[in-house]
Design brief:
Layout lengths: L11 E2 L3 E4 L3 H12 L23 H16 L4 E7 L4 E11 L8 E8 L6 H11 L3 H5 L3 E5 L5 H9 L3 E2 L4 E2 L5 E2 L2 E5 L1
Parallel strand pairs: 5-6
Antiparallel strand pairs: 1-2, 2-3, 3-4, 4-5, 6-10, 7-10, 8-9
Helix pairs in contact: 1-2, 3-5
């Protein structure tokens, strides 16, 4: 089933959330609430993203980001899901995954980026989302490990990661431009 994720984005769900394809026409307004949330932006992983800090203030900027995510999916760079709160049928963030090939410690590793609106940046919600995606990483991406960034100020995120079996890596992730990035948590899948 590896690479079928690039044929059709699978829908994953539990009792609280649905992970599904992002629809520009439907999701732009709600995603702008996430990416314009000044409390959330510092927790977003913009490592190796050519200067994009994922802080968007206009509908046009959000639409451009969604178009780039769609382009990247079509070229098999990464998959980005909308995170929809089932009860309210409201998008409260996105989650991105891709299988990384590199000449550093994070080779053959799935990299996860989790962007949530600040009112959902809670230990319980993060844990809930992680437990939806972690069991699918090997099947969807062929990765043996999964890594994600959590800066030291992301206390709830770090607690959720530790509960889900992640450990802070002492290794740096080396970007395509040679920049070394820290604060990555990793676990086997």
């Amino acid at each position: 089933m590896i690479n079928d994720v690039y044929v059709q984005i699978p829908v994953l769900e539990n009792d609280r959330f649905i992970l599904r394809e992002i629809y520009k026409e439907k999701d732009t307004k709600e995603l702008l609430k996430v990416y314009s949330d000044d409390k959330s932006v510092p927790f977003f992983n913009s490592d190796n993203c050519n200067g994009d800090d994922f802080s968007y203030k206009t509908m046009e900027e959000m639409e451009d980001a969604i178009e780039f995510w769609d382009f990247s999916y079509k070229h098999k760079y990464f998959v980005r899901w909308a995170i929809e709160l089932k009860q309210k049928q409201e998008v409260i963030g996105t989650i991105e995954l891709f299988h990384r090939r590199a000449e550093d410690y994070f080779d053959n590793c799935a990299i996860l980026r989790l962007d949530l609106r600040s009112d959902y940046e809670t230990e319980a919600d993060i844990e809930n989302i992680l437990y939806m995606i972690i069991p699918k990483v090997k099947e969807l991406f062929g990765s043996q490990r999964i890594a994600t960034k959590a800066v030291s100020s992301a206390g709830s995120r770090i607690l959720a990661l530790k509960k889900a079996g992640f450990c802070l890596s002492e290794e740096y992730l080396t970007g395509h431009d040679g920049i070394k990035y820290d604060s990555y948590y990793i676990r086997k899948v």
